[in-house]
Amino acid sequence: MAHHPNLTLEDLERLMHHTPGCPICHYGCESGRRYIDGVMYESVNDYGLRQKLTRTMGFCAFHSQEMLTIPGAKLGAAIIEQAMLKEALSRLSKPANGRGAFFSSFSSKNQSNPFHVPSSDACPACQHEREAETRALEELLQQWDAHWLALLTQAGGLCLPHLGQAIALTSDKTLTQTLKASHQRIWDELDAHLGEFIRKQDYRFRDEPILPAEATASRRAIAVLTGEPRQHGSCGEERRVPQS
């Protein structure tokens, strides 16, 4: 694996070599985990972060659980969750829209919901992930050449959301066509694996062995169409896509 002065590209190359699936998804997942790790050890009592978390009522469900997978981070998690619980209790004690009745807060209108989080206020860790993914995608497109095409193809390509973002980010028509053509080939192969898996469910063909790539085709198709799945404490390192 080549050494890059750019750490983002170095991470992307590592991911493409060792972790099948969309490398931008995996990079974002790793960035989010590093962000949570940094919060646990350096920023638990940071005023700016606390203000953000107060607006969002804490991290999202995934990243809140992710805190518990960081070694030695239970104290930090407890401090953050206590602060958020106190915020929730404070909101409970305030009359909804001045009407004085707590249960009136359970209205269909967002302004009556004491825990409503405006759509503009994202989980800080999710926001960090999205920004990291965009930066990584921009770096990849700027350095694009045959080397990166081969690596990306080997990994299984980008997921549909990140391919769409890549096409939107570049104004290079040749690069756009390369991305489209390479993913056409990758997705055609996946389509064939799905077709074979479906065909072999027919009683007439059940004696035909299902190949590993066919057995995993449904899972891989979901990852292609929606983005790579995430597990707490892991960013896909354990996944290996069998070849036909």
Structure summary, number of beta strands:
0
**Strand and helix order:** HHHHHHHHHHH
Counting H and I runs of at least 4 residues, what is the number of helices? 11
- Rounded to the nearest angstrom, the distance between the terminal CA atoms is 25 Å
Mean pLDDT: 87
Low-pLDDT parts are 99-107, 237-244
Radius of gyration: 22 Å
Give the helix proportion (percent range). Answer: 55-70%
Basic shape: globular
Query: How many domains?
Result: 1
**Major β-sheet profile:** none
**Fraction of residues in β-strands:** under 5%
Structural class: mainly alpha
In short:
The chain has 244 residues and is an all-alpha fold.
Explain what this protein looks like in three dimensions:
With 244 residues, the protein is an all-alpha fold. The chain has helices at residues 7-18, 23-43, 47-56, 61-67, 74-92, 124-142, 146-155, 160-169, 173-199, 212-215, 217-226. The chain has one domain (7-226). The radius of gyration is 22 Å and the shape is globular.
